[in-house]
TrEMBL record:
It comes from Blautia difficilis. This is DNA binding domain-containing protein. Coiled coil: none annotated. Residues 5-122 form the Schlafen AlbA-2 domain. InterPro entries: RecG_C_sf, Schlafen_AlbA_2_dom, Schlafen_AlbA_2_dom_sf, WH-like_DNA-bd_sf. It comes from the Bacteria.
Length: 440
């Protein structure tokens, strides 16, 4: 009788298809041995047709497990207590995690040995094992989803007259040395799980929310869809000098384009969060996860230093002529605001990088400044006095009434009411459009 099962030993009374999970579990952990022909309590029963069973085992492992696990498996017949037993000796694999082909890189398809049992891995555990055992960046690691389609990628490549067959996908690092799709392929595929969320706010903070949209699919599709959405809300203001008319959009198109590209190309996709675009009345914020690449400081990027976190993704975008060269995006954003008094802002914190584009057509007002749309004779302080007086005489005041009272737009009316509340002169009752402001 043999010893009981443990971290490195598993008993099977006879051949069953689940043997492949035990072998995988050992290869994904510290190795071990599976004995076929031994009962769970260690009693040796033997195998009647060891050659036939060994052939079943070998074929099952070859056909059902990926990547190829056979270099780390040795199947032999050994004699124990004068009976024929099959010994499957497994060493730790170098291409972990190994998984069931029909299930893929997901908890139902990846098993690991823990104690005396073989257990499914969590998604976090699978990602960590891929990263640890690849020694490569996230974009180079094996994709957990191998059932990928590339309709958007092929359409965009064809539009640019770029061939995109299997050989090109290998060259572009969408297919790894093991013949499997990489995370780069996953990002460019129609199944990409990373999304971009765009939020529109009324005013200059997040107190009043107007709209939210989430863009999905290939990051190429998200890039196009998000840019088109921002383009729709990027208003144009006309100014006149004599008979000459000048049209100026709220945000320079090139600055929007470069900020959006920056948030997609340089983010850390090992984080599961979405790309974020926050649109206020006076600015747009592009927020991407990951912060700066380790070793770089914010001032480094203004010196022209560029170290891409996703060089293979940047190479694909470069080939598609979406970017010209590395490290030029920040300069383009700054040049787009060269003749404008308010400059773009670039901020970094742990795990986050943010680009803020100011609205070129949004007037920056101070307390004593006279407003153009009130005929040039009513200052902000005087407007606030009118609002307070109106609330005293009528019991309350609404934002719409403020707009009519002082001839201001929605944003300015809301801002004045908020400042009066912060000064302790008014008190808000209700939320959103139903809000009323009372004397405090």
């Amino acid at each position: 009788m043999l010893a009981f099962e443990n971290q490195n030993i598993e008993f099977k009374q006879e051949y069953v298809t689940d043997i492949r999970k035990e072998v995988m579990g050992f290869a994904n952990a510290e190795g071990g041995t599976v004995y076929v022909g031994v009962r769970k309590d260690g009693a040796v029963l033997g195998i009647n047709d060891p050659d036939g069973v060994m052939l079943q085992i070998v074929n099952s492992l070859k056909d059902s497990l990926a990547p190829d696990i056979m270099p780390f498996v040795r199947v032999n017949t050994v004699e124990i207590e004068e009976k024929q037993v099959i010994e499957i000796d497994v060493t730790t694999g170098t291409n972990r995690p190994y998984y069931l082909r029909e299930k893929g890189l997901k908890p139902s398809g990846v098993y690991v040995r823990k104690g005396s049992s073989t257990q499914p891995m969590t998604e976090e555990g699978i990602r960590e094992m891929i990263f640890q055992n690849s020694g490569r960046s996230f974009e180079q690691c094996r994709s957990m989803n191998q059932e990928l389609t590339f309709h958007t990628l092929r359409t965009e490549m064809q539009r640019r007259s770029i061939e995109i067959g299997p050989s090109q996908m290998r060259t572009l690092k969408l297919i790894g040395e093991d013949g499997l799709y990489t995370n780069l392929a996953f990002l460019l595929s129609d199944q990409c799980e990373t999304t971009t969320k765009v939020a529109l706010f009324q005013g200059t903070d997040k107190e009043l929310f107007r709209d939210r949209k989430e863009f999905k699919g290939s990051i190429l599709k998200q890039l196009e869809d998000v840019y088109q959405f921002i383009d729709l809300i990027n208003k144009t203001k006309a100014t006149f000098s004599g008979l000459d008319r000048t049209d100026r959009r709220d945000y320079p198109e090139e600055a929007v384009r470069e900020s959006l590209l920056n948030s997609i190309v340089h983010r850390d996709y090992s984080f599961s969060g979405s790309n974020l675009v926050n649109v206020y009345e006076d600015r747009i914020e592009f927020v991407s996860l990951g912060g700066l690449v380790s070793g770089l400081e914010l001032k480094s990027i203004f010196l022209g230093v560029s170290q891409s976190r996703n060089p293979n993704l940047a190479a694909v975008f470069y080939r598609m002529r979406l970017i010209e060269s590395y490290g030029t995006g920040i300069g383009k954003i700054e040049r787009a605001y060269k003749a404008f008094p308010f400059r773009p802002e670039f901020e970094t914190a742990k795990g986050v990088f943010r680009v803020t584009l100011p609205n070129r057509n949004e007037e920056k007002e101070s307390e004593g400044q006279v407003l153009e749309n009130t005929g040039g004779d009513i200052s902000l302080n005087e407007q606030k006095q009118l609002i307070v007086q109106y609330a005293q005489e009528n019991g309350s005041v609404t934002r719409k009434e403020v707009e009519d009272l002082i001839g201001a737009g929605t944003t300015k009316a809301f801002r004045l009411l908020k400042e009066l509340c912060e000064a302790g002169k008014l008190e808000q009752k209700g939320r959103g459009k139903l809000s009323a402001y009372l004397i405090k």
